[in-house]
Model the fold of this input.
Amino acid sequence: MDIVTLIIQLLSGAVGGNVVGALVKKISLGVLGNSLAGILGGGLGGQILGGLLGLPTGGGGLDIGSILGQVASGGVGGGVVMLIIGLLKRMLGGQR
Done:
């Protein structure tokens, strides 16, 4: 993996975390929290989803298929991690 792939996945993860936070306001962690959880999920999700689904997530240059795979896997990973962290925080009494 190269640095451009990682940056695309991290940025997509931050966007995915904020989109989920905006859609599910009861578990939102705020803009900074959503972004941080999304960045974490974007990096992890980009690698895991890319490998499981066989998405073109790097190594082949910056063609449109590779970039779309990176954006999709990073965004989904960021949204999922933000959702999990938000639910855990709510269940542990952080929000009502």
Q: What stands out?
A: The chain has a mean pLDDT of 86. The chain has three helices and no strands.
